[in-house]
């Protein structure tokens, strides 16, 4: 659990730092976006960059979460396959035991008839 809280703490500190940096620098700077010249405050640029990074991180996190769930399902299926395989083997052994008993009883009957 420690790494989870450590990463959450680091993320919180980064958010605080980005907020402090963005709102302490209110200067207007020229920006060229798709060949359009604009005048934007540094705050808008910093916050827009932070939002893009946040969105990218969420997308990566979601894709990794689905991969983990897929791996867990594969492991569950493997254990189920192993259980089914052992049950099949046990059923085969049980059937062979029943066949042996049937043959033994048939042999006993045949021997009794032969003695008579």
- How much is the average pLDDT? 86
- The low-pLDDT segments are none
Number of domains: 1
Instruction: State which percent range the strand residues make up.
Output: 5-15%
> What is the H/E string?
HEEH
Question: Helical amount among residues, as a percent range?
Answer: over 70%
Q: Tell me the number of strands.
A: 2
Strand adjacency order, main sheet? 1-2
Shape: rod-shaped
Gap between N and C termini = 80 Å
Radius of gyration: 36 Å
Structural class based on helices, strands and sheet pairing: mainly alpha
Structure description:
The protein has 116 residues and is mainly alpha-helical. The protein contains two helices and two strands. It has helices at 2-24, 42-115; strands spanning 28-33, 36-41. The chain has a two-stranded antiparallel ribbon. It is rod-shaped and about 115 Å long.
